[in-house]
Specification:
The structure is a homodimer. In chain A, 40% of the residues lie in helices and 25% in strands. Chain A is an alpha/beta fold. Chain A has a six-stranded mixed β-sheet, sandwiched between helices. The first copy, chain A, has a five-stranded mixed β-sheet with strand order 14-13-15-16-17. In chain A, strands 10-11-9-12 form a four-stranded antiparallel β-sheet. Chains A and B meet through helix 2, strand 2, helix 11, strand 14 and helix 12 of A and helix 2, strand 2, helix 11, strand 14 and helix 12 of B. Strand 2 of chain A pairs antiparallel with strand 2 of chain B, so a sheet runs across the interface.
């Protein structure tokens, strides 16, 4: 099946917002066995929109359009599709009723303009929108499928996951496509590619690598007649990859380093405290992005000046001997955080984030210190990048090393 | 002039990377007086790419293509354009020489595949690429312009700014287009739209509003025969808008709240320290995203548990009386940060970030406390949103209020 995505909205052509919907939908299609051939972006201009829809209807089997379903005058996707199929738009009374109830619920008078969103054509099946008033359309005719969804990502993604993805899976029939993502840290993408290269050229399961802020991700995608067989193919390939990348793999699919660290602290009934210097609070911030982190994270210290370092209990002589960016200080920070904040584990992080090198340490030099009460350890790392990238990589390194120790 | 952007690369159709180039280029065109009608994304398939180029060449005056200029087999943009114009690709010896010198400089043998990137057709003028080996092309014929640039954003954006933007400005001739962005905080987009509505419908200067994480931005764009006149139009409209939005406006163009706060702390020779609770370090992190912030930011305290709050000198009785999310505690946090970390100003921030309401305070309740040694003040705010949005809004509120006091 050849697919085409059409993104509708003048704001996209003005560069006022980036088109994240197309990337999201594009990433969903391979696992359906649908080949995406084009993404077309067009503004709120009926003539150009109809032209774009006509072209798509001629050259593609599945057309997925997002945007232009709002209540205002310049939302013309419904009108353009009606023109494409020479059909009449009529107002669906059930939808109008639904809108009225919704607005009643929020105790707001329904603007008359919303009635426009209850318009539908004979060919279109209405797709409910749990997060907004603009319903989607599913149109199936001449062995082609045309789908329309609202532009706001949170409305579009839920409608896609709940309604349209299952409908398309059913229409594609037969083959089951599954995928699993393995997440690594500490290796370059080139290095990962090299070590798994025999699998990169395999047809089933396929393997692809992606460079992300938290490391290199590997996506295994298998195709089979049954779920069981598709799962078997993935499991087998996962064993191959784990044998090669071993403890560089820290998680899978929806795992984040902070959620994994949080889960194992919770499982072990341990608490954590942090002291960081040049990362300026990013470490504590990412740890506390996890809902419920208050059950294991005691707090954090951000030492951004000599006085603060002294106030936080770091020995001035130790600093003058080794510099603030050193293994010794990273360990001292871990111990001070642990003791001052009364946690089971102290995590210390210091890094040269620029703009210039500090104490002769090049930008990107990172030291992680960990004190769990029994043992003090530190790890030295170095990553290229600008100020914000080094801050991010330093925090990822700290959480990665902490995870290793918690295992 | 009608323009069209063509993004080339199968990775875009697989959703492996989002197409940020198109949004960047789209945002550049309005100030040139060029109307963007379409953005087309196509994969590394010569037939479909040539078809897309043909269509663009028929319907648009300016075509800007990015991607597909790499050294590998699947980079086919040069070949597709040669096919479009029925021209022969020949290798440019000067470019080959340049490549060889470049690789020599990095002490790497030049892969033979790179020679492909020295290919050029008679119609094309070569555009240098200071950040890579793939040069761009400028093709001007039949009253149309076709531009190709490499896909990597850092290569594309520099080539655009240095070479292509000036060339296009010259070609457009005559009219000067300037724009200025004013940044506000504390008002909803609907509210801002309402209060400046007369100007939103004006033709010159135009006015547009955008909702961003740090508030609502207003972009004024003027068109005139001379720079002086264009500047006068913007200045005049800026006066109108400032008269209405007044001290909700905190900055312009490239200002960020953290850079403005940093600049005025530096100017006044003042230092800052922070204590935050449920924002978990995001406040300190954003303050320290500014290069040079170590000259005025002493450090930060992240109080994420009762023991930590006590350890940081917050009175347990005060907490039990008012709760951790209260004006009183925000002020106490400011004072404690100021005194413990020896700064001129202490900034305290506490907010209900979810997942559930805390102490009967609904998610989105924010208290900012400021103690400058003379006076303690606090501000209560409330913003909707999920955990991460509330964290972000709370930090923006804190920096916004601090800026007001520093003025």
């Amino acid at each position: 099946m050849k697919a085409e995505i059409i993104s509708i909205g003048t704001e996209l052509l003005l560069g006022e917002i980036a088109d994240t919907n197309s990337a999201y939908l594009a990433s969903q299609l391979p696992s359906l066995g649908i080949d995406l051939h084009f993404i077309s972006t067009v503004g709120d201009n009926q003539q150009r929109l109809v032209g774009t829809l006509q072209q798509a209807w001629q050259r593609s089997d599945v057309i997925i359009a997002t945007g232009g379903l709002g209540p205002t005058q310049d939302d013309i996707t419904r009108e353009a599709i009606a023109e494409l199929f020479h059909e009449e738009i009529t107002i669906d009374p059930d939808l109008v009723k639904k809108f009225e109830d919704l607005f009643k619920h929020y105790k707001i008078d329904m603007p008359r303009s919303n009635i426009k969103q209850a318009g539908v054509i004979p060919s279109a099946q209405i797709i409910p929108n749990p997060r907004g008033t603009a319903p989607g359309w599913w149109i199936e005719r001449d062995n082609r499928i045309l789908i329309t969804m609202p532009g706001p990502p949170r409305e579009m993604q839920l409608m896609w996951a709940n309604e349209l993805l299952p409908k398309l899976q059913q229409r594609m029939g037969g083959t089951v496509i599954l995928s699993k993502t393995l997440k690594t840290f500490g290796l370059t993408e080139a290095r990962v590619d090299e070590s798994v290269s025999p699998f990169l050229s395999a047809a089933n399961p396929t393997l692809a690598t992606y460079a992300k802020v938290d490391g290199i991700h590997l996506r295994i995608t298998s195709k089979a007649q049954t779920t069981k067989e598709a799962q078997r193919l993935i499991a087998q390939r996962e064993v191959d990859i784990r044998a090669i990348l071993d403890d560089h793999i820290w998680g899978a699919d929806f795992d984040t380093l902070e959620s994994i660290v949080g889960a194992s602290l919770t499982a072990k009934g341990l608490t954590l405290a942090s002291m960081e210097s040049y990362t300026g609070g990013l470490l504590a911030n990412i740890i506390t992005n996890v809902a419920g982190s208050s059950s294991y994270f005691k707090g954090g210290l951000v030492a951004y000046s000599d006085e603060t370092r002294a106030g936080f209990g770091l020995d001035a002589q130790l600093i003058s001997r080794h510099g603030t960016i050193s293994a010794e200080i990273a360990e001292a920070m871990a111990t001070a955080a642990r003791e001052k904040l009364g946690a089971a584990i102290g995590l210390g992080l210091t890094a040269a984030t620029g703009p210039t090198e500090v104490e002769g340490k090049p930008i990107g030099t990172i030291f992680v210190g960990i004190d769990d009460g029994q043992r003090r350890q530190s790890f030295a790392r170095n990553y290229p990048g600008n100020r914000l990238q080094v801050k991010q990589r330093a925090v990822t390194s700290a959480l990665f090393e902490l995870r290793r120790i918690l295992l």
